[in-house]
Specification:
Elements lengths: L1 E18 L2 E15 L2 E7 L10 H9 L11 H6 L6 H19 L3 H4 L6 E3 L1 E4 L4 H13 L4 E5 L3 H14 L12 E5 L6 H14 L3 E3 L7 H9 L5 E3 L6 H9 L4 E6 H4 L2 H14 L3 E4 L5 H8 L7 E2 L21 E3 L12 H4 L3 E8 L1
Parallel strand pairs: 5-6, 6-7, 7-8, 8-9, 9-10, 10-11, 11-12
Antiparallel strand pairs: 1-2, 1-14, 2-3, 4-13
Helix pairs in contact: 1-3, 5-6, 6-7, 9-11
């Protein structure tokens, strides 16, 4: 028998998370639990109109309307094909729960089910939008935690360049030879116009920044293509990438570009795997990224680390109270989880904080 239960929670952040679009202090999250016999699978959803195109209410209603008779835990692909009308966040919750359950039933990690390679690489730590002094202090905190790839969020080119300079000056120069080289990235979250972005790229080149993420609005496709033609550092497109076709479109841009794949944004692991295939087919360098998520969502993204070039999977580190702890392979790194299913398991002591919305019965 299959039992579906939907939960919601509002999780406090350990510090305000500020980007160019705004500031958040809490995370609203929906969890879908699928039980079949003695096995349980969990998925999560983070609806955001500016990212997934869904409101929290729409996602809640979509997941609450799932029919257990139409959920085949033994065949995630057919179940997801029957629910193509779900929005990305709702579909992601269903997708993650199905793959988590399938992996636990088979006693295999999700990456094995998806035929993905294992991976282990540095993980970027995010410095939120702030003044240069605070940006430097955030960077020091990440460095003390073992991170040496840092991503600086900006909203103004001048202040952003100064914050990036301060962060870059702190990167370690004495890491062991076996470690990859320290890096600094910049992420504007669509905040700039073309002139501002060109000035930013010039300044970043002198600072040794490795890439700039989504400098222009996703709708400014012509300007993005123009900016990439002579870009001195690669342009990583995030908000512009929500499907495999978007990855292929990035691959058609002339100039150094990359695509950021986020499991929540594209609608789950099945869709993310299709994005990986599109990147491989077009020779497009890929990053696996995240939003603010629990360890459950980070574990799903981590399943892709063997098939991408860089990892930005620090979203759960901003939570003050993590309900799905995830063991990292090493501080400052991301790696493929090896436990059965997604590899993140709920903390029983914190599940009581989740509000049950509805039990959808059994089939």
């Amino acid at each position: 028998m299959t039992e579906l239960t939907l939960f919601e929670a509002e999780l406090e952040l350990s510090r305000p998370f500020r980007i160019a679009r705004g500031t958040r202090e809490t995370l609203e999250v929906l969890f879908l639990r699928i039980r079949e016999g003695d096995s349980t699978g969990w998925g999560e959803a983070h609806p955001a109109p500016d990212v997934t195109g869904e409101t929290a209410l729409e996602t809640r209603e979509a997941l609450a309307s799932l029919d257990p008779d139409e959920v085949n835990a033994l065949d995630p692909a057919s179940t997801l094909a029957a629910h193509e009308d779900l929005g990305p966040a709702a579909r992601s919750a269903l997708d993650l729960a199905l793959h988590d359950l399938a992996g636990r039933q088979a006693d295999q990690p999700v990456h094995t089910l998806l035929d993905l390679p294992c991976g282990h690489m540095p993980c970027a730590g995010t410095v939120t939008v702030s003044d240069p002094d605070d940006a430097a202090e955030q960077a020091r905190e990440w460095l003390r935690s073992g991170f040496f790839h840092l991503k600086v969020k900006i909203e103004d080119p001048e202040d952003g360049l100064e914050a990036t300079r301060r962060v870059a000056e702190l990167l370690p120069t004495d890491l062991p030879d076996r470690f990859p080289e320290p890096e600094v990235w910049v992420d504007a979250n669509e905040a700039l116009d073309l002139d501002q972005a060109q000035a930013l790229l010039t300044g970043l080149d002198t600072l040794g920044a490795r890439l700039v993420e989504q400098p222009l609005p996703r709708a400014a496709t012509a300007d993005l293509a123009h900016l990439a033609q002579d870009a001195p550092v690669p342009i990583l497109l995030d908000e512009s990438v929500q499907s495999p076709e978007d990855v292929r479109a990035v691959g058609r841009i002339e100039g150094p570009t990359m695509a950021n794949i986020k499991v929540q944004k594209v609608g789950g692991l099945q869709a993310a795997s299709a994005c990986l295939d599109a990147g491989q087919a077009t020779g497009t360098p890929l990053v696996v990224g995240c939003n603010i998520e629990t360890g459950l969502g980070i574990a799903a993204g981590s399943a892709l680390t063997g098939a991408v070039d860089r990892a930005d999977l620090d979203g759960n580190r901003f939570l003050a109270n993590e309900p799905f702890p995830l063991a990292r392979p090493r501080p400052g790194f991301a790696g493929t989880p090896e436990g059965p299913g997604l590899g993140a398991y709920p903390d029983p002591g914190k599940l009581d904080a989740l509000d049950k919305i509805v039990s959808l019965g059994t089939a």
